[in-house]
Amino acid sequence: MEEQYKISDPQVLKVVAHPLRVRLLGLLRTDGPATASELGRKVGESSGSTSYHLRELFKYGFIEEDDEQRDGRERRWRSRHRYTSWDAVEMSGTAEGREAVRIMHLRQVEMVGRVMEEFDLADWPREWVDASGMSDHILQMPPAALREFHDKAEALLLDLAARYADDPEARLVHVWMGSVPRTRQEDP
Contact 52/7 with Cβ under 8 angstroms? Predict the structure, then answer.
């Protein structure tokens, strides 16, 4: 599996920003290869619907057939990349690019909401409850400080994942980072 799929075409970003497609791709990345029927059951859609959207993901290079785990009746699909990325500055050069990034950001926020809605503290041992959670901060920072934060946080995250990869208590976890400047509220 390749590390990333860097998108520079707003149309391609819009393809993956479709609500069902982004969910299907996420499931293939986290849960591994699956057929349209298996994915349909997970997302509550028909296999015909999931099959159509999987073919669109395939057409644009997000997924591929999994030849190692062939199913005699149905295609088994897998993700080609661990994650999708794009250059927001590059995309912001056109109205279409700005719209594609906005839609993708909204899909990401929807996914965060879905994951947090499904997270039940009662299902997890104390250690996981204590380590999990969300926080928000409103700070005065220039763009350079925010870029430094994102770079250092990502480096730390990758370092910790590598150091603890073989820990028997390790689980797949969702980690989100997001920041945007606050819309300035004018005084009345």
Answer: no
Task: Please report the pLDDT score of residue 186 as a whole number.
Answer: 61
Long-range residue pairs from 137-146, CB within 8 A, at least 24 positions apart, any chain: 138/182, 146/179
Closest CA to 18 of 128, 103, 145: 103
| Mean pLDDT of all residues in 54-68 | 94
- Whether 92 and 104 have beta carbons less than 8 Å apart is answered as no
- Please tell me whether residue 16 adopts helix, strand or coil conformation: helix
Q: Counting beta carbons within 10 angstroms of the beta carbon of residue 75, is it exposed (0 to 12), middle (13 to 18) or buried (19 or more)?
A: middle
Strand order from edge to edge, sheet including 34-35 = 34-35, 76-79, 63-65
Q: Which residues make Cβ contacts (< 8 Å) with residue 94, sequence separation at least 6?
A: 10
End-to-end CA distance of the chain: give it in Å, rounded.
54
Query: What pLDDT score does 1 carry?
Result: 83
d(Cα 130, Cα 124) in Å, to the nearest integer? 10
Report the half-sphere exposure of 30 (CA within 13 A, side-chain side): 12
